[in-house]
Amino acid sequence: MAESKDKLLLGPAGLVFQTPVRAKKQRRSSSAQKSGLSRAQQMNAALGRIGRVAGRRPEVMVKITGSARGRRSLREHLAYITRNGKLVTEREDGTLIAGAANVRSLAEEWWSEASVDRPGRARDTINLILSMPSGTDPRAVAEAARAFARKNFGGEHDYLLAHHSQGTDPKQPENPHAHLSVLTRGRNGQRLDPRKNDLQAWRDAFALELRARGIAAEATPRRMRGVVQKGQRQEIRHMDARRASRVTQWKLQQAVKTLTSGKDEASSFAKTAKERQRKTLRAWNMLTAAFEEAGQVALAQEIKQFVSAMPSALTEREHFIAKAKKLMEERNRDRVIK
Fold it and tell me: Residue 91's beta-bridge partner residues?
């Protein structure tokens, strides 16, 4: 009976937590193909993750912010994340780097390594940011970032890790984060070329390191949380705060043109996004029913509250069209009043 309940729970859980990605197929060893977890361990892991997601625990952010290409780009990026040497940063072997001269020296060393057998327009570094919401213990974030870098790149790729928080730099945003610049050319000559599934695996790994340090973090894809709109790039968000984003202004202008042309038809992307959210809601509802049948009433109720608070399936395009409609209605109302 217990095994049938496990299947009942793990089946819908699989539907919710699947992350569809398109990536190059890689050969996996027989040990990697097996999870190595018993059914009880799988069950506990699924229950833990479901509880954290439904309980809206803090979400990690692991994002590729760009890459350095060429000697000049290397120097500029390393100077940026170290605040031109003012911050004490860490290399893969544990060496501490501080001072503008040492940062420039590292950039030259990396360039001499990266330029060996270098394909044209190759990325010489992969630049990551690892972040948590404000209020998270900066020390725990720094320790988790250090462990994450060592376990995922140590022994194969050199890297530079810079911890940023208001404690190290008062001008920083309140959320503690770390910049990780990884040299793409590995010690065996193979170059780092991350795919979507790698990025999700990195998010999971960073969240795991945080949980090991007492931070109840999760790394759930937006789709699992019913979020349709893509995340806004950090620099665009900052410019929007100053009302200086040309990208946002352009999108709003395009929405106005769509309305005035009378061609306000839902795009295929919007239809796909809505269908994807419908499937996500169905999977969560299946989980709720499974937990209720298994006697996990409290968790079932938490999932119901989580699902009821999900955002509507509104794409970015539809968001701007709705905003444009509101602006046009306000302008027309002002003209009538005048």
Answer: 160
Q: Which amino acid is at 21?
A: V
Pair of tokens at residue 164: 């940023």
Same domain, 267 and 130: no
Angle 58-13-129 from CA coordinates, rounded to 5°: 35
Q: Which amino acid is at 68?
A: A
Domain edge (last residue) among 153, 182, 211: 211
Q: pLDDT digit string (tens) for 91-125?
A: 999 999 999 999 999 999 999 999 888 888 889 99
Task: Tell me the C-alpha distance between 252 and 301, whole Å.
Answer: 39
The order of strands in the sheet holding 89-91 is 61-68, 125-131, 177-183, 159-164, 89-91, 96-97
In this predicted structure, what is the pLDDT of residue 28?
Answer: 40
> Does residue 62 contact residue 196 with C-beta atoms inside 8 Å?
no
**φ and ψ at 103, to 5 degrees?**
-65, -45
pLDDT over 90 at 6, yes or no: no
CA dist., res. 71 & res. 128, Å (int): 19
CA atoms of 104 and 194, how far apart (whole Å): 26
Is 22 within the bounds of a domain?
no
Domain shared by 323 and 247, yes or no: yes
Is residue 29 situated within a structural domain?
no
Q: How many helices (H) and strands (E) does the chain have?
A: 12, 6
In this structure, the answer to whether residues 250 and 167 fall within a common structural domain is: no
Give me the number of domains the chain comprises.
2
Return the CA Rg of the chain: 23
Both 75 and 121 in a single domain?
A: yes
Residue 5 falls inside a structural domain: yes
Q: 243 and 191, same structural domain?
A: no
Give the domain extent around 65: 61-211
Task: Check whether 282 has a pLDDT greater than 60.
Answer: yes
Among 162-171, 261-270, 304-313, whose mean pLDDT is lowest?
261-270
Instruction: Provide the strand spans (E) within 60-170.
Output: 61-68, 89-91, 96-97, 125-131, 159-164
Higher pLDDT among residues 109 and 304, named by residue:
109
Residue 154 lies in a domain: yes
